[in-house]
Queue: 2 jobs
Job 1
Amino acid sequence: MSHDGFGDKSVSKLFDAIEDSKHQELDKLIYALGIRHVGEKASRILAEYYLHLDNLMATDVETLRGIKDIGEIIAKSVVDFFALDSTKQLVEYLRSQGVNFDQHVSAKVTSIFTDKNIVLTGTLPTLSRKEATALLVKYGANVVSSVSKKTDYVLAGEEAGSKLDKAQALGITILSEEDVLREVAKYED
DNA sequence: AGGCCTCGAGATCG
DNA sequence: CTCGAGGCCT
């Protein structure tokens, strides 16, 4: 039976992975729904504002438009999506399977990165992009995707691309993963 | 206008 | 992963 390399151990791991996925934060769930114009950033904004999927589903265009960075187009896209029968069925199915619908707003630590616009580029030595982003966000940073004159720091790793060139041209402070880790270590309890 | 997010394409890699 | 075009928001 196990000639395909997918035996009891793999089944167990897969089962665990599925269980874990049910406990992910609401922002990940919203992103996974694949709503048009709602990517990672908008998903986080919506999750932190509504805190529970039921609240988001019950909202209206005006309320959505009142949220920073959410305008007419995204508001309508969200409302239209949750009005669909297929969406309602999917949501009820997920609920029946015990998927987490809450967003836990983690307390942000004040640091030198608080309210700073930071861009990541290249491959970091130990942290993945997601991990680095999560770490910086925890310390109050606003991680954005492109370099401009509003960018405060650029966290660069190996094989950094055009973002690094642009940052240097603008005279933006370049940080390494080591710099960031050393800095946040000061705030660990 | 300017900033930057979304999303698809193509390169990179385990 | 990076890049860039297109499009959304203020």
Note: The longest strand of chain A covers residues 117-121.
Job 2
Amino acid sequence: MVSPRLRPRKLSEPTISRLPVYQRIVEGWQRRGETSIDSRQISELAGVTATTVRRDLAGLGSLGTRGSGYEVDLLMQRIGEALGHDRSYQVVVVGLGNLGRALVNSTNFLIRGAQLAALYDSDPRVIGTEVAGHVVHSFDEELVPATVAVICVPPEAAQAVADKLVAADVHAILNFAPQVLAVPLGTAVHYVDFSIELQILMYHLNNGTGPLGGGLLHSLGIAATTPLRTP
Amino acid sequence: MVSPRLRPRKLSEPTISRLPVYQRIVEGWQRRGETSIDSRQISELAGVTATTVRRDLAGLGSLGTRGSGYEVDLLMQRIGEALGHDRSYQVVVVGLGNLGRALVNSTNFLIRGAQLAALYDSDPRVIGTEVAGHVVHSFDEELVPATVAVICVPPEAAQAVADKLVAADVHAILNFAPQVLAVPLGTAVHYVDFSIELQILMYHLNNGTGPLGGGLLHSLGIAATTPLRTP
DNA sequence: GGATGTGAAGTAGTTCACAGCC
DNA sequence: GGCTGTGAACTACTTCACATCC
């Protein structure tokens, strides 16, 4: 049972995955000093139809102005709220090889509200060094409390890492290791797999026609988890 | 005569994005010496229903055996064929910061058929060094012919890189820079955005109910990887 | 005029239920 | 018995078309 939060009525999965894209577009507009944007402009940059943009945004409440579009500042704020950027999250990263470093150093990875709580690795040569201003701790230490953990270790180590995270009461995991994780009910795992995008791209190359006509953008993600019932 | 059977009929977008997941699962089974697998087993690991797995696989032709499931070797081969792993691709990577290095060093990024044709960077300190056994060239040089280009440069440099790639007749781009690219019709761009998965995960955390019931696996997008450690 | 927001229609994808084969 | 493959039912998402409001 969830406490009835007023604002966002349930958004569809495709909508949720498009909101971050819209937000990035609007952010760019904002940085260039634009004060408003309309659904067609967003749609062209996002590679979706204008109707889809309007429907997605309508789900956040009535925030457009008929005749003139959406106010950039308001849009940024509302999308941020819908995505939960107004809350704060403690993020831990496990594994600081190239990928972990790339993520931690990326200006783009940590959205507003997300704070790096700790970095962990198991390589003695890495432990104790600083990455992006944070000292890397041994994964053998007791873990700090965290909202989300990001796993960037080799696949054969991923399950053990997940087990320890679950034991430390982490309920959301973003897994970059190409390894299926077994976790108890109540823990959300999202998988990120670089090679999948490459494979999809190649499928379309081979099969000529595809959803790549040439639009501007195409992002994807998606996929839902099985709604398992509790025994 | 034997029917050529090369043309799997058009697969749906969701199916295409699930095939690489199935393949990874089956590969694991294969490595453990299993000889067959059934749709329920795949479905539990992939976090989808068994019916969905059967429908997806049925699209590749009739390759299961009623009563006993799918033969692991055959399944690997057919999924690989459907995804075009039996062809060969020349891949170039532009930008060898942490992310570019992570990709190139990953055992998992380059699927069968994909060959690293060249690495490019614009940093004089990086040009001439070796990464994963390949010398890094200056992006000012003439580009080698390539099927796919992977962009791992900072967002402000991404458009210029894309322009040069397009001029060099590259028609498929995998863009890791958080930057919308303008490309001519006929060029496919796929975007990979780390922060999007994180944001989706957080949305579900905030909104209690979501597709994170907890099951085994799920959600996919992109990426993956691993082994790290620069020499 | 010009854009949003939304019922209604259309399309794509998933799940059910079972026939067919091992 | 068990498990695949698939028509039929269902659900979700997208697109159309237009009433609505600035």
Note: Chain A has two domains: 13-82, 89-191.
